[in-house]
Amino acid sequence: MTNSRHTLLYVEDDVDFAELNIGWLSDRGYRVVHAPTGTEALARCDETLPDLALLDVVLPDMEGFELCQRLQQRNPGLPVIFLTSLAEGRHAVEGLEAGACDYIRKDASIEEIDARIRGVLARCGRHDGMIRLTERCAVDRRDQTIVVNGIRHKAGTRIIRLLLLLDERRNSLCPRDTLIAAIWGGKSINGEVYLNQAIARLRHILEADPQLQITTRRFAGVILTVQPTGKRG
Question: Does the pTM of the predicted model rise above 0.70?
């Protein structure tokens, strides 16, 4: 048994197959969040921050390829692995082009599935659920906190998603409309207010790390500036 402490979003509509794999993955130390449909997977992703998504391709309400793209829009940098019975090469190519890191047949052994999950997590920098932004700052997905200088700040799913979105485009302008749509939905009436509140909260949390600075440009967007080690802005 491993002690990964990683959270997996597992999207599979075959109940019997899902229960079997959930048991195996749980025995190996993963926390598994299961969703039988793409719509439920998107909702669960809003409630928690998975370290990796394990997706079937054939789902009742949408193709896994579409779900992969929508999950990564909501959760930038989220690693995705397809676990599916579709075995033709063109399906694997389509899955990888949709943004997946790997493509596994359902008849693979749990040992192979586990090894490939761990390999993707390692390549993507997911170590024990931690994502490091700088030497002083990291995001801990296990308890949805931002850790700065060893101090944990409970931030919540949306604020952490905002920080990861900004970090994915670090030192570049992120349009406000893009941030609001990705985190609160494009039809959010109070999106501007929510974004301003979230930015203020992030600034307060990150002020102890001199490498990180959030700058807003009115009517344009938001920039997370990440200074090189040892340099102060």
Answer: no
